[in-house]
Specification:
Order of helices and strands: HEEEEHEEHHEEEEHEEHEHHH
Number of strands: 13
Largest sheet: 5 strands, mixed
CATH topology of the largest domain: Nucleoside Triphosphate Pyrophosphohydrolase
Strand content: 15-25%
Mean pLDDT: 87
Strand order of the largest sheet: 3-11-12-7-10
Number of domains: 2
Low-confidence stretches: 32-45
CATH superfamily of the largest domain: Nucleoside Triphosphate Pyrophosphohydrolase
């Protein structure tokens, strides 16, 4: 009996000790995991919101480098240069690119929708200036060759975790956290492009809705035209490098079916979308077609209809347009492009007054 009692007491003591140490081990494990997250986790946004474009209580991820909607670039004040060799990608980005290339090749072999790898440019550096005596905007852009799969491995993969969970380290954290964002990182700054707000002959502003099956910002409301430089199709006739007016003309043709002329296009600002790390020029364009003519043209087929799902038109009324943008989420480049277009049409003071009232 005494032996049995001792065995029971020993078993109870062992159980209690095991529970105590198991709880301590579990607690220690949880504290260790929290420590790992503290070490590796950093906030998604690389810069304070106060430094990006905002008006009233409406904030965006657009970092203004130059321009305000009233000042303007001209064909003579936008100079583009190209260095021949692409940048060598860091190992983790090269691995992501290889994965994307293999994935899209598998989709193609199975007869599924796939992304193809077209040529692009990355931004190496830029130099701002002003003309004398007019004080117009002036810029020199230097590019490096890149491609769409590199764009996918960088711009659309900024928040992909590079480590094994629970540890977290993303491209955004590794390369953009603490970086002076006004200085481009060439192997990241892929897909330099333009964005336009197009005004029709019958005084309508065009907004577009992106298709839901594309690789970047599917289904989002957007400005009239958004187009990346295509190094071959947009090559200048007069110098080595791209002509950004050609990019804009091609984008309008592919996405809306309209034929713009160089004099129809006015570039009003330059900057960076810090959420997607996309650099570009923003502006306004005036077309000779009415909105109904554009809709009819699109029914006959256009080159970029796969990218733009639908278009909508709003009267050129600042209150109506800004209220529409308040009701429906539009990405930051689209918002600032529309703001610059309204500023060009109605003046900065008037648009700021209306916008502050709507976004109060």
């Amino acid at each position: 009996m005494e032996i049995l009692l001792s065995s029971i007491i020993g078993a109870i003591v062992s159980l209690i000790l095991s529970l105590i140490f198991e709880d301590q081990l579990t607690s220690l494990k949880k504290r260790f995991l929290r420590w790992l997250r503290t070490i590796f986790y950093r906030r998604k946004s690389p810069i304070p919101k106060a430094e990006t474009f905002s008006i009233g209580k409406y904030t965006t991820s657009w970092l203004v480098i130059d321009g305000d909607g009233e000042l303007e670039y001209t064909p003579a004040t936008i100079r583009c240069r190209v260095e021949n060799m692409p940048y060598t990608l860091p190992p983790e980005i090269s691995a992501l690119r290889d994965t994307i290339q293999k994935r899209e090749a598998r989709k193609k072999s199975k007869g599924e929708n796939y992304q193809w790898n077209g040529p692009m440019y990355s931004l190496e550096k830029y130099a701002r200036g002003r003309t004398i005596p007019e004080e117009n905007l002036e810029i020199t852009l230097t590019f490096r060759p890149s491609d769409y799969f590199t764009f996918q491995a960088t711009i659309t993969s900024l928040d992909t975790n590079l480590l094994t969970p629970p540890a977290v380290l993303t491209l955004r954290q590794k390369y953009l956290q603490g970086h002076e964002l006004s200085n481009p990182i060439p192997f990241l700054s892929n897909g330099f492009g333009i964005a336009l707000a197009v005004i029709t002959k019958d005084k309508k502003l065009i907004l577009t809705r992106r298709n839901t099956n594309i690789g970047v910002r599917p289904g989002q409301l957007d400005s009239s035209v958004v187009e990346g430089i295509q190094p071959i199709l947009d090559r200048s006739n007069t110098y080595k490098g791209p002509d950004l007016y050609r990019t804009a003309i091609r984008g309008a043709q592919e996405e809306l079916g309209i034929q713009l002329l160089q004099e129809d296009i006015h570039f009003l600002g330059f900057g960076l979308d810090t959420e997607y790390y996309q650099w570009g020029l923003l502006g306004i364009a005036y077309c000779s077609e009415t909105i109904e003519q554009i809709r009819e043209i699109r029914t006959r087929g256009i080159g970029g209809k796969w990218e733009v799902n639908q278009i909508e038109a709003i009267d050129i009324n600042p209150k109506q347009i800004l209220a529409r943008l308040k009701e429906n989420k539009i990405w930051s480049i689209g918002f600032v492009t529309v703001y610059y277009a309204l500023t060009k049409e109605f003046g900065k003071d008037k648009i700021d007054t209306i916008a502050k009232e709507i976004f109060k």
